[in-house]
Specification:
The complex is a heterodimer of chains A (257) and B (380).
Chain A lengths: L5 E10 L2 E11 L4 E6 L5 H8 L7 E6 L2 E3 L4 H6 L2 E4 L11 H5 L6 E4 L4 E4 L1 H14 L16 H14 L4 E5 L7 H16 L4 E5 L2 H7 L2 E6 L2 E7 L5 H8 L13
Parallel strand pairs in A: 3-10, 3-11, 6-9, 9-10
Antiparallel strand pairs in A: 1-2, 1-4, 4-5, 7-8, 11-12
Chain B lengths: L3 H12 L3 H31 L8 H26 L7 H21 L4 H29 L4 H19 L12 H6 L1 E6 L5 E4 L13 E6 H19 L1 H11 L1 H6 L4 H27 L10 H11 L11 H20 L5 H25 L9
Antiparallel strand pairs in B: 1-2, 1-3
Helix pairs in contact in B: 2-13, 2-14, 3-8, 3-9, 3-11, 3-12, 3-13, 4-5, 4-6, 4-11, 5-6, 5-11, 8-9, 9-11, 12-13, 12-14, 13-14
The chains are: A alpha/beta (257), B mainly alpha (380).
Chain lengths: 257, 380
């Protein structure tokens, strides 16, 4: 069996008297889409924020690509290739597609021995085209401010940006929220494409259709604990809902998987 | 957004919209130019009609350009700050402080036996350093201590005003060397009209009496300096990473932070730039009047913000151009000059400028409603 890309061991995070994440262990393997499922307040966002460097865990270890990792800030996680796409997508709506893909990492041309540096717009436009092509994303034009794009297209820009900058693990927070059905399908398609290119995806969601459409495995959390981990093919909506509301719990009533 | 691709895209997206919407987009993009043109035509016709002098003369156009330099210089830094979704209320008083500082520096240097030109350079450095320090303090408090820009710059404008009055001992700083008047008032070209006239480059012809009335100055030095600052500002905003980050911070602060843009240091630099352009305005006014004044910039803050808004910069941040601010400044200056030449009471200027500011924002909003806040035609 291949080694996991991400390994979490006994991770615990407390906020004062509240244990938001309680002793969770979890592995994510290359080329799979794992859904992280749970009701509001189940601890899934906190768990993910520990992985992406927003929070520091109180107990437990995180291994990324086999190495013990400690992310003090989000930028540390991004440097090793953990890209998190939050619901607001971290896009500047007043800028065009290439500007967003290169946001904060703009390509520059040097003049007078580096004394004056200008933006290399041509290079960024070309690279943006290539990056989008690699994911089969097509827009009529890349040179408009992206608030003229639909929600799904913006999601695609955020994904393309993460892939362009060499994401090794993609974490997506409710990527299909607020999208129409055709747009949801397109985003799901993109997630599958990422998996096919070997980038594992963690999908934080409580949208069950998403889970069954794209995920290979499912982890369900309830009140900070991992209550089950299943292959998507081996479960169904009713069972998942029972786990989510706490009616089923593998740690209390072990079930054979 | 600068490539021809961008223009093609903007055209393409315009052509997908119904004709009425297309008209609004085009009109909203060009209205400031059109308004400026119409206004000039109006004054050209109306001024002689009420028995005034000809409006559109070389001399008058150069006077208008000289008149807008302070408002425009303050507006340039303000444009950068407002695009980043901030505001700088201290610029008018920073200009005053810089005027006093440069006057004191030039006087001391010259009296200490330093030749004229190096003294003027010392005055320039004093103005820029003093102004830059105010910007550094403003920006640091805004970026690091997270105090709203409105409050910080409001507070610092009072402080700067007090410091300028203290330093000038509440009087005009005079006793400057006579020669600096040339730096503030002479120009690149001279045109002498009528018989025996001609075109002179760089050197003012020796004239006397009646002939002096035939002399027109073309591109006075303050205008030239301002033009250079305008060109630098356009370059920074359109071509550099600094400009891109300015739009990004104004467009989505969270995105800028998450993508690793050094937001704090960027904001500090923006307020320094804003103060420095105000400092240059103060320095130029000292040269022009051969004196430093602690009240010279008092009335200019609101005019500069008006110019920026008429020019289409969004107070929400993320959108606007330097050329917009240039046109906004021109509109205010032409309006003011024209009304004076029409013998309209000066109070009406305020009323007209106020109406234009509000109409400008209404036009921008109607466009935003129809095509989105950053729809085609915004961009850098």
């Amino acid at each position: 069996m291949t080694d996991p890309v991400l390994s979490i061991r006994g991770l615990t995070k407390r906020f004062g008297g509240l244990t938001a994440v309680n002793n969770v262990s979890w592995d994510v393997y290359p080329g799979e889409v794992v859904a992280l499922l749970g009701d509001n307040g189940a601890g899934k966002s906190t768990l993910i924020k520990c992985v992406s460097g927003v929070y520091t865990a109180d107990e437990g270890e995180i291994y990324f690509q086999g190495r013990r990792s400690h992310f003090a800030r989000p930028i540390d996680a991004r440097r090793v290739g953990i890209e998190t796409i939050y619901q607001d997508l971290a896009l500047a709506n007043n800028l065009d597609v290439p500007a967003n893909i290169f946001l904060g990492r703009e390509a520059k041309k040097s003049y007078f021995g580096g004394l004056i540096k200008t933006l290399d717009e041509k290079f960024m436009l070309r690279e943006a085209h290539a990056g989008l092509d690699a994911l089969d994303i097509r827009f009529p034009s890349l040179s408009q401010p992206i608030d003229s794009l639909s929600g799904g297209q913006r999601q695609a820009v955020a994904i393309a940006r993460a892939v362009y900058w060499d994401a090794r693990l993609m974490i997506m927070d409710e990527p299909t929220n607020n999208l129409g059905v055709p747009e949801q399908r397109k985003v799901q398609e993109l997630i599958r494409k990422l998996r096919d290119q070997g980038v594992p995806v963690i999908l934080i969601t409580h949208t069950l259709p998403d889970v069954f459409a794209v995920s290979d495995r499912i982890l369900v959390m309830h009140r900070g604990r991992k209550v089950t981990e299943k292959k998507t093919a081996d479960t169904n909506s009713e069972e998942l809902v029972r786990y989510m509301v706490g009616a089923l719990d593998d740690t209390v009533n072990p079930v054979d998987v | 957004m600068t490539s021809s691709d961008a223009k093609a895209a903007a055209r393409a997206s315009v052509s997908r919209l119904p004709a009425s919407k297309q008209f609004i987009i085009v009109a909203s993009r060009l209205w400031a130019w059109a308004f400026l043109g119409l206004m000039i035509v109006f004054f050209v016709v109306a001024v002689p009609a009420v028995g005034g002098a000809t409006f559109f003369t070389v001399r008058n156009s150069q006077n208008i350009l000289v008149a807008i330099t302070p408002v425009l210089l303050l507006g340039l830094g303000q444009t950068l700050v407002i695009i980043s979704a901030g505001i700088d209320l201290s610029v008018g008083w920073v200009m005053s402080l810089a005027s006093v500082l440069s006057a004191l520096a030039i006087r001391s240097a010259f009296n200490a036996g330093i030749p004229l030109f190096p003294s003027v350079v010392i005055g320039f450095l004093a103005a820029v350093a003093g102004a830059g320090l105010v910007g550094l303090i403003n920006g640091t408090i805004i970026a690091k201590l997270k105090v709203p820009a409105f409050i910080v710059t409001l507070g610092s404008s009072f402080i700067v005003r007090g410091v300028a009055l203290l330093m000038s001992e509440n009087t005009t700083v005079i006793g400057l060397p006579d020669g600096i008047r040339d730096y503030g008032n002479e120009s690149l070209f001279y045109l002498v009209r009528g018989e025996g006239g001609g075109f002179y480059f760089f050197e003012r012809p020796e004239l006397s009496g009646e002939m002096l009335r035939q002399l027109d100055r073309i591109l006075p030095y303050p205008v030239l300096v301002t033009a250079v600052v305008v060109a630098i500002a356009i370059f920074i905003l359109r071509k550099t990473q600094f400009g891109r980050h300015t739009y990004a911070i104004g467009g989505n602060l969270q995105a800028a932070l998450r993508t690793g843009i050094p937001v704090d240091s960027h904001i500090i630099k923006l307020y320094m730039l804003s103060s420095i352009t105000a400092g240059i305005a103060g320095f130029l006014s000292t040269l022009r009047f051969t004196a430093g004044s602690a009240v010279i910039g008092d009335a200019l803050l609101l005019s500069s913000i008006a110019a920026v808004i008429i020019g289409g910069v969004s107070l929400f941040g993320g959108a606007g151009t330097i050329m917009g601010t240039v046109i906004g400044s021109l509109i205010i200056a032409v309006l003011t000059t024209g009304l004076v030449m029409l013998n309209v009471q000066a109070f009406w200027q305020f009323i007209v400028v106020g109406v234009v500011v509000i109409v400008a924002v209404l036009i921008d909003q109607s466009r935003d409603l129809i095509v989105g806040r950053h729809g085609p035609g915004q961009g850098s």
